[in-house]
Amino acid sequence: MSQIEQEERKRFFNDELDTSEASLNFKSENKESFLFANSNNDKESLSVSETPEDEGELSFSSVVKEVGEDDQDQFIGELQRIIPEMPMSLAVELNEKFSSQCEGLSLALSHYFDHYNGKLGGAMPSSPSQVNTSPDTSISALSPSPSNVRKRKNYGFRNQTRLEDNVTWKRFIGALQVTGMATRPTVRPLKYGSQLKLKRSSEEISATKVYDSRGRKKTSMASLVRIYDIQYNREIGRVPEDIAQILYPLLSSSEISFEATLVFCDNKRLSIGDSFILQLDCFLTSTIFEESSNDDLSFMKKRRTERDNKREKDNTGFGRSLTETDEELENRSKRLALLKLFDRLKLKPILDEQKALEKHKIELNSDPEVIDIDDDEINPDQVTEVHEDLRNTQHEEETMNLNQLKTFYKAAQSSDSLKNLPETEPSRDVFKLDLRNYQKQGLTWMLRREQEFAKATSDEETLESDANMINPLWKQFKWPTDMSWAAQKTRQDHVNLEDDIFFYANLHSGEFSLAKPILKTMIKGGILSDEMGLGKTVAAYSLILSCPYDTDAVGNELFDAKSTEGADDVPSSFASSSQDNKKPYASKTTLIVVPMSLLTQWGNEFTKANNSPDMYHEVYYGGNVSSLKTLLTKTKNPPTVVLTTYGIVQNEWTKHSKGMVTDEDVTITSGLFSVDFYRIIIDEGHNIRNRTTATSKAIMDLQGKCKWVLTGTPIINRLDDLYSLVKFLKLDPWRQINYWKTFVSTPFENKNYKQAFDVVNAILEPVLLRRTKQMKDIDGNLLVELPPKEVVIKKLPFSKSQDVLYKFLLDKAETSVKSGIARGDLLKKYSTILVHILRLRQVCCHPGLIGTQDENDEDLSKNNKLVTEQTVELDTLVRVTSEGFGSSFTKEDLEAVMEKLRFKYPDNESLQLLECSICTAEPIDLDNAVFTECGHSFCEKCLFEYIEFQNGKGLPLKCPNCREPIDGGRLLALRRQNVSPGNLEFKPYTSASKSSKITALLKELQLLQDSSAGEQVVIFSQFSTYLDILERELTHAFPNNVAKIYKFDGRLSLKERTGVLADFAVKDYSKQKILLLSLKAGGVGLNLTCASHAYMMDPWWSPSMEDQAIDRLHRIGQTSSVKVMRFIVQNSIEEKMLRIQEKKRTIGEAMDADEDERRKRRIEEIQMLFE
Amino acid sequence: MASLPKRIIKETEKLVSDPVPGITAEPHDDNLRYFQVTIEGPEQSPYEDGVFKLELFLPDDYPMEAPKVRFLTKIYHPNIDRLGRICLDVLKTNWSPALQIRTVLLSIQALLASPNPNDPLANDVAEDWIKNEEGAKAKAREWTKLYAKKKPE
């Protein structure tokens, strides 16, 4: 047979014969590195499919070989001669498989020895085959006879000689024709068909150097991928950039392998820059499938240790020194490259499996036409079909995914089905409170989510999910016909099995599988996202008390560490230890993590709700429990509920992570991370929205069987906020960042909002329950009847000094932003600009805030140096504005008056006992004293009241004391000397140093005091310094018997907080109780229904935070209508912030895929601010 | 109704605890802005030995606005009319928030001591006063005896 071939070759390639002869020897030595038949007996592994793709084939005919009947007999005879015992049937089979190949006999024999000689199903053969790799073995046959059609087909799997340890087989997925560019001159023309190799020019370039953080390449990759001549093992050229981009990330991986063959080089010596053409055959190797079966979360988890053990050679090629980001980046780039490769190979997912199968059968039974290789395309029939296919695919792909998703996540909670949810009434024995109807429905839903169907009221609806549903993110592919260079020379018969027609790929995560990926069972738990004030706490307790312990576990061994999630769920940072000794299972305990300010509230609620003497709760805070582990797993009656705070969790987590490195510590090994809880509930779950924070990471590492998130505002800023929740719930597949990014972040960033939101809805629909106050029940009644809420925006002008200061700062900020935009380094100046903005916002509130921080600005917290840094310039300005402005003194006048006053009040003592004749207060608060030109002193407030009154009546302004005419612009005030603050000196008074907001607030409060006594009032601000200023001003403005002022901010201890709130809640009709509330400390969770008036001193970036704050008052229990007034300074940054809020309200904010992206988004906001 | 300003409370306390000789002022039980005032006629004036009743009311805008004061006791005085209204600059144009109840009442007392017929309110009295000062003073004394007789202790 090889003789025949040889002859044929001579016949058709006489012109090349001499050179090919020369290279033949080399090739046959070297062929191991190139090609060998895979004699895998596993029939599944063989397949034939006719996928038209052969860009690479321009000038060569496909391999068609005629093998006559005689040949076959001869083959069988030969086989039986060598192995007399060989049964005829096997011989025939081997004949079919191998006879068409050159050296088929030896292949058949080695196959026989490997697979039939007592080693059935064993390892793949590694014996080198003797494949002839001479330049060409093909015969151009335009009309092949039917008998050889099948022989023309290629085998699917084969081995590599230089197998990496973990690669057992590889399979052809397509070929590319690539034009290379010579980088070195060659002495002789490259031989047609000579084997080439692609290499990375350097293996040690870190991923971050090659890609930026978004995974886009930074450098040209063409320089990183080189073509080597295997024969001489030297570089001969480069590939074009587009190919290099595909190849570079994949070359380091063993998952994809490439074989390159020179197919055209003009038969000349190559000079630098000359082009040559090579055929690049691409193969998937077994590794890529192994990975997916081992761990489909490998991209998400920090499993470097395990992975390194598992696969000694990290397929990233970068080894251990990679940071997680690097790894993620690397994976992402690989994934993208893979996508591009699939695209180039025209490898398209199969949309209709049945159709594909039918087509496949037809192909098998009919005689496919010979591919006319001169034609760039394939045969016309196929072309049309393919194109149709392509069009369909592309067209359908976008909508397809969504539809798939939707079918998969069958609308569990359309608002209709929500209404029809049956109600579950918790047993009176355990639950004391009355639930509202919607809360009972919620309980049903939650019990179902935990698969406690027995306890939930059931209806006809079955909640079974379709077990055969293919994971929507996976795609089905058909193995293409092996058209690789090697395959065309070594024809082989094929065995068809339907099982092996397809492979599956998740192009979003880069996972591959041979088996159909079925979605995992549902997680237990979910997100209860009822709007604020609908009683999430009560709902949670109704669930806990209805279902206080894990019935499965309690039925068996109580203290047995039985976890349904098992090793899969091992928290990343303790992976090594917890795999060996699993954490004990606290099957009777629910852990509730709440913000510190709500700890008491949750505790009280439990007592109110619990009706069972056996159940109790434990507050795990401040070291009151020595060993949680013992308490939960070793005592007879462990607490039903353990309450703790985010702070504690984070604290223990930090210790724990460190503890793993050093010796094991008792407190660490017995804390929150030492047990596996039955249920974990995180209240105000949006606290973990930023997955890079320690808190978030800590929460993710808590272990529990059922997990619940309570939050009224699942999205605070951006769609990505949801991701953390999904990750916490371990909601597959979305908790993999790749999925999330592909389906949510990226469409969103591309302004494809509908798609992004559709996906988010599809993801969350089954696991999220949200009722709003506006929702109506089945009878059309509102779920909750709340008194109306009225939000008024009060627009105020700047006071004069604020105005001047604002303009100054705005000017500076604009210059900074503009120059940033002009130079393109806006991002570099990010912090500076944020400081600018912060200052502008602060001036709107009170000039005195400048230099302090915004406790809520995540971006700035690290830069407090910048914030607090007062430039000399600014300092002067603050002084200038508070000095000269608003005063109409000429310089001479001023000097004269000052002289006079200095004479009248020569020292500090003379200033100590001044009396204000208007309010009869004595002594006057010197910080608020004003002096007339005639030297009389008044309280600032009194004198201005007088001036206002007189002006209002058109009366002349006279000094109340001496009746000298006075002028509002010609007043003086005192200032503490910079050098010795005890000493006072005169300065021109400027009426403008007051903040217009404070003036307005005082007025409003006064009005309220006059109209309705004893009203409690809440004042929100995000600047705690502002709260301090307000406290001072209010105390000054309202005497003790008129108003009582409370301040609630982060500086209060838990006990103080409880005290303040309790005191504030007590109604006192003789006083106006005013609560100054810091947004950060009290924006969430608090119940302030005792008050019905709120004032928001400053706008927040996030509108939902403001809503949250308002809902402290406007929630169940509120009896009167809620009035909210928001103070906004006209024509200032605050008005623009309102606009940004509007925008956020409508579209939300896109995900912060990474820090850069988030900053970019904020930069956009910044630009909006300075429009 | 707005609560009582600190200043009024303070003034009231002072009027009670440290009264001006010859003047009393007591806030009404029901309305702390309404005062019942008595002023003794200054010595060596036609009003000597008389005790005059007045009412004083502090308007909402007090102390920006002057208090309203009126004689309840009939008095023959060129600057006080039949209705008891008083013509006094500090109660009108010359009011200053620096003035107080106490100073206002002292001014009224001083007005009794030195009537000013050139800026009259009761024109007939003023005319009388200018034409025949002695006669007018006698009439004033007569009225004082008649209407403002000190109650026997």
What do these coordinates show?
The complex is a heterodimer of chains A (about 1150) and B (about 150). Chain A is α/β, with parallel strands linked by helices. Chain A has 41 helices and 27 strands. In chain A, the strands form 5 sheets. Chain A has a 7-stranded parallel beta sheet with strand order 13-14-12-15-16-11-17. Chain A has a 6-stranded antiparallel barrel with strand order 2-5-4-3-6-7. The N and C termini of chain A lie far apart (about 80 Å). Chain B contains 4 helices and 4 strands. Chain B has helices at about 5-15, 100-115, 125-130, 135-145; strands at about 25, 35-40, 50-55, 70. In chain B, strands 1-2-3-4 form a 4-stranded antiparallel beta sheet. In chain B, α3 (about 125-130) crosses α4. Chain B is globular, with a radius of gyration of 16 Å. The model of chain B has no long low-confidence stretch (mean pLDDT about 85). The interface of A and B includes residues 1039 and 1042 of A.
- Specify Rg of chain A, calculated over alpha carbons: 39 Å
What is the strand content of chain A?
5-15%
Number of helical regions of chain A: 41
In the sheet with the most strands of chain B, the strands line up as 1-2-3-4
Strand order of the largest sheet of chain A: 13-14-12-15-16-11-17
Percent of sequence in beta strands of chain B:
15-25%
Tell me how many strands of chain A there are: 27
Oligomer: heterodimer
| Span between termini of chain A | 80 Å
Helix content of chain B: 25-40%
Q: Provide mean pLDDT of chain B, rounded.
A: 87
